[in-house]
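A common beginner's mistake is to predict each chain separately and then try to dock the pieces by hand. The better habit, illustrated here, is to supply every component at once so that their relative placement is modeled jointly.
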Amino acid sequence: MARVRVTRRVHFSAAHRLGREDWSQERNLRTFGECARTNWHGHNYELDVTVAGSVDPDLGFVMDLKDLKQLAEERVAAELDHRNLNVDVPWLGDLNPTTENLVVAIWRRLAGALPDGVTLERLVLWETPRNYVEFTGEGLE
Amino acid sequence: MARVRVTRRVHFSAAHRLGREDWSQERNLRTFGECARTNWHGHNYELDVTVAGSVDPDLGFVMDLKDLKQLAEERVAAELDHRNLNVDVPWLGDLNPTTENLVVAIWRRLAGALPDGVTLERLVLWETPRNYVEFTGEGLE
Amino acid sequence: MARVRVTRRVHFSAAHRLGREDWSQERNLRTFGECARTNWHGHNYELDVTVAGSVDPDLGFVMDLKDLKQLAEERVAAELDHRNLNVDVPWLGDLNPTTENLVVAIWRRLAGALPDGVTLERLVLWETPRNYVEFTGEGLE
Amino acid sequence: MARVRVTRRVHFSAAHRLGREDWSQERNLRTFGECARTNWHGHNYELDVTVAGSVDPDLGFVMDLKDLKQLAEERVAAELDHRNLNVDVPWLGDLNPTTENLVVAIWRRLAGALPDGVTLERLVLWETPRNYVEFTGEGLE
Amino acid sequence: MARVRVTRRVHFSAAHRLGREDWSQERNLRTFGECARTNWHGHNYELDVTVAGSVDPDLGFVMDLKDLKQLAEERVAAELDHRNLNVDVPWLGDLNPTTENLVVAIWRRLAGALPDGVTLERLVLWETPRNYVEFTGEGLE
Amino acid sequence: MARVRVTRRVHFSAAHRLGREDWSQERNLRTFGECARTNWHGHNYELDVTVAGSVDPDLGFVMDLKDLKQLAEERVAAELDHRNLNVDVPWLGDLNPTTENLVVAIWRRLAGALPDGVTLERLVLWETPRNYVEFTGEGLE
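With all components supplied together, the output reads:
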């Protein structure tokens, strides 16, 4: 049976800053530059969630796109939208919210929540229209 | 020799609805929701056709982009543009026109039509600016 | 007080065909070409709704963007989304659904529904990413 | 002589929240909803700066686009980028940073800084890809 | 009768450089910077052609969009595409091809070619995704 | 450790034409069509540079995005921007500047310049918004 990838894009707007809790602000600024400024900045993030699976011969779906949208919005976008990523999100803890760290955290949040036979294939997280990260689960223990 | 992927995007505007001929409309509506409404709806589809091959050392081409464009437009876009995907297209038959089923049907339509040494690598079919499917031929008998 | 324009974009996917009920299909095809084909085609429409007004000194709003979004979605997008514009929409009647006719009909649907002191300034209706119409109410009796 | 409008787009990423200093947070939340959350959120803003003037017959320019870019970046984008709009920007003071209030403040910042014979014609400020405000100086005392 | 604006976008890819034939290359470089480099550079231009008129009550059209597209492509895009704007285009003569000068020249080329009752309303010429010029015929003798 | 891909997009505007120095212009025109015209044409190129590596547990970075941007701009974009790709760029030599040949040349220019532990994963080079090439280093001796 044909194996197809299906992608849904969701959106969230959030504040963050880069830096480690256990480092001085001076060291954070030296390491992360303007991204470490004390009073936060923010972005319009776009997240492309891609799943893969066989096309169900009865339905013509890998999975219902409405279910994929709901999953991505409820488990991720609604939790991050209009929030501060350093402070407000329990499942991010005190993570330094680089896009790399965010995409891995979002992967853990979504990977176990898919229907049987459907796998999480790839996440693409856009921080601005000119930079993004991709994760396929590689190297995750 | 370097192996490069080359992509051309083509466009078509079409009507469709989701549903199976052999199911009652009540069952189609229960399964496919608003996408199964009787009187059709439609989309501006974008199709990215990606081929791969060695770069011809004389020409600097994997294949002439004008030929790829012509192939994608003549064999796919012109056949689907300003049509009803459930009714008007002989090579779709009575396929339930989900994006998954469409992208597999388009693959079959293009895979055998490429020049020697050039392979069809990937199709990406956008139904809206926020959802798309990808197919690489995986699982096709 | 500063007068500012505020725009919200909403989306709907719909089927239609061009043609007049009181003309033969032969005449419709001669006049409207492939757009008049019997079995419909469709588009992803984008509608930009622009209102204007003074900035409320207490709130910093011309009007609450959430209210504008709700108005545009409830009175327009939800009524047209996943519908056939020739057949399914009572307030379009048997209008020939050219983008020009649609944008004027949408104007009538929105102009009277705005809060006091806020005026409907402009509608932009995109039928494809390469063509759109604009209407500012000019010439409407 | 022909009068032409010239536009340059600049970008900034910033944090903000909606609310008034002189209102309780409870009242701010009731009025501004999720936009008033205590710990900020943020956006990728795009600002289109449009100037107008006669085309200089010697140069073929209304004004040098590099100068327009520099002006927009130095006086606006660099001052707002990677900042908190409620806290960090002296020329915003304690303004409630709605897009309406922001676009008027940016207008005041740019209007007097243009070369002789060139006028500030229009500002468009995008907060997300689906909503923006426009200001032409109307109503400004 | 309602008066509506209709826009069609066309594309052309061209080479150019800024500079005056009657100035030394040294003076051109001092004035126009990298844009004056001897061996040309180039752009993907997008041109939005906007016409306005009453909506024909029989057809629902201001003018047939296919005719507008054909006009813009034949009289402008096909003449400029894959050309050098300084050298190859008789109706540009030895114009210094700034976007301001180009948009005025394109206006002259299109304004007289429209059907009765339809007026050329606005041209928008994008040189890159971040800068564009607009012309409405203002100041043209 | 999680392995993530990080992408930065950079821009350049350049002139070129397709053709071989050792072929007659007649043969070049027969082979490359309008792309071989004598007086050049040009494009707004977009280049997506994707690197991959483990996420540094101290920093949360695969590599600092500012360094990646600087590398892509200094070694590639600044060298090609506002240039003629056939004539002006020493490291392109007399290469026939098809997008396939360009992307391979850019790969050679970037692959050795990355920090330890970070690999060049993929280049995507857009010549227009509707066609692009991808290269992953495959087949390079």
